[in-house]
Amino acid sequence: xxPDLLRNFCIIAHIDHGKSTLADRMLQLTGVVDERAARAxxxxxxxxxxxxxxxxxxxxxxxPWAVTDAAGVSTPYALNMIDTPGHVDFTYExxxxxxxxEGAVLLVDAAQGIEAQTLANLxxxxxxxxxxxxxxxxxxxxxxxxEKYAEEIGGLVGVDPEDVLRVSGKTGAGVLELLDKIVATxxxxxxxxxxPARAMIFDSVYDTYRGVVTYVRVxxxxxxxxxxxVMMSTRATHDLLEIGVTSPEPIPTKGLGVGEVGYLITGxxxxxxxxxxxxxxxNAKPADEALGGYSDPKPMVFSGLYPxxxxxxxxxxxxxxxxxxxxxxxxxxxxxxxxxxxxxxxGYLGLxxxxxVRERLEREFDLDLISTAPNVIYEVTMEDKxxxxxxxxxxxxxxxxxxxxxxxxxxxxxxxxxFIGAIMELCQTRRGDLQGMDYLSADRVELRYVxxxxxxxxxxxxxxxSKTRGYASLDYDVIGEQAADLVKVDILLQGEQVDxxxxxxxxxxxxxxxxxxxxxLKDLIPRQQFEVPIQAAIGARVIARETIRAIRKDVLAKCYxxxxxxxRKLLEKQKEGKKRMKTIGRVDVxxxxxxxxLSSE
Length: 601
Ligand code: GTP
Prior knowledge:
Layout: E1 6-13, H1 19-29, H2 35-38, H3 47-52, E2 60-68, E3 74-82, H4 91-99, E4 103-109, H5 116-127, E5 131-137, H6 146-157, E6 165-166, H7 175-185, E7 198-207, E8 211-220, E9 228-231, E10 236-239, E11 242-246, E12 250-252, E13 261-265, E14 279-282, E15 301-307, H8 313-324, E16 331-337, E17 341-348, H9 351-364, E18 369-371, E19 375-376, E20 378-382, E21 387-390, E22 401-416, H10 420-429, E23 433-441, E24 444-452, H11 453-457, H12 460-467, E25 473-483, E26 486-493, E27 496-497, E28 503-506, H13 507-524, E29 532-538, E30 541-548, H14 564-579, E31 581-584, E32 587-590, H15 591-599
Parallel strand pairs: 1-3, 1-4, 4-5, 5-6
Antiparallel strand pairs: 2-3, 7-8, 7-14, 8-13, 9-10, 9-14, 11-12, 11-13, 15-17, 15-18, 15-19, 16-17, 20-21, 20-22, 22-24, 22-25, 23-24, 26-27, 26-28, 26-29, 29-30, 31-32
Helix pairs in contact: 13-15
Bound molecules: guanosine-5'-triphosphate.
């Protein structure tokens, strides 16, 4: 298709504002799928995505759309709808899908108004110079307030509230007009057709049958079937086994030219060989310069992951190896813990990523897992100037530390203005620094904070939701790092360190952490034959202490007479029980106690 007949756009929307429903409606109205199939939701393929109502992997669908002008002449356009991931952890993937488009539909629930993630993605789209089409969705809802929210998003985008389209993905109202508006408003792609090919990878998905399916947007030149291609970041070359467009099933084509969006299959088995953001070029006539904007995904949040049943360790290892084929951002290495046995230290983009990975492992591989409290990545400079990267609190050095640096984020919070006080208080306790505040409308504000990432990974979102009765929304983006007064707090059982509970915290919060952890463990660890002190310490200095009082539990005392076989049975039973015990020093602790202490965070 000639570039001037192409329109590449995405839909920016908050979770549940109806992106999938609208996308399905468009597929149906353009004849790509029939109404019944539309319900199968072509854009979100993964089960978990659908159940959790979030879109993680972006993909693209091509739709034909003919526009008839005043003179009755019909022009056949091809619209490429590119799906964007909707959540904060995937900002980099969002930015790549936006870079593949010339326009964005800003879709906002007419009963809810815009949310923080949508706003953040809107700003990203504006930075990418995309044409923005503001649209209010779900106008069929009785609770819809189109006038109010048209004012709000009109103001943000800089259009007259009257020009904000009103649609319903559910009834189909306004959707034909939206398709026409996309053709009229979104610029046609421009590129150099005679130049060596440059195509940006905006998504890459592992498929059990076909290997990695790579989604690209061609900027210049042409990619042809069966030619050899080069991945510019690594210089790796591959044979193109298939090239085509999705509409909604994969359809092989005779190549992809300027402005086109489609997929490639090269037979590679690991998404790391086909990286989001990388540039693909022809091997025979390679481009000199890659398209801008490529960066490697950086894991920012780490946590230990252990099978509850130690014998599941090999299954966990295989499961992680399989997930990695599909998730370029997932990193892990084996670690072991006195309290939890053998497991892995896993790096994630953020908390949602952590949850998704864990859920997939539990569901798809039938594993029962426990994860340690998440921590961020720290850079520790020793007094002798050596620099260490710490992703596990138990590796935090004990010697003379010069400086500790932690990642910081720029956070955007949107909420009804009545909650400003509560939000500020929360951010204050999380070492937040207020950068600015704007009213989006008379009763809704946008607050901008700089916060340490470590303060966000720890139940910040839950707190924010509960303090605002669920009305606040949050978006954050890592912007750099800062020095902070951080210390490692260890938890000791009878003088022995329990590794899974070590934490790196701000000095001012060390005491509170120590008191809460020792208190929790005191309640969970059964009494022993002797007194057991539980201490929290920074280095050698104890900052909190609890004591489990001794009991004398003599199992044999119950046995009257000299029934030897009964005695033996009891002793057997006790031994059985001990198997699931972890021994810390002289103290026997049931693994359940550790698990309970970690889960009740
Ligand atoms: P994610 O895929 O989770 O990001 O959600 P989404 O934004 O794609 O939302 P989805 O299309 O799954 O719709 C969310 C909910 O809103 C569903 O229960 C839909 O049935 C409902 N919904 C979507 N569009 C409309 C609409 O136009 N009117 C009404 N009344 N409900 C709608």
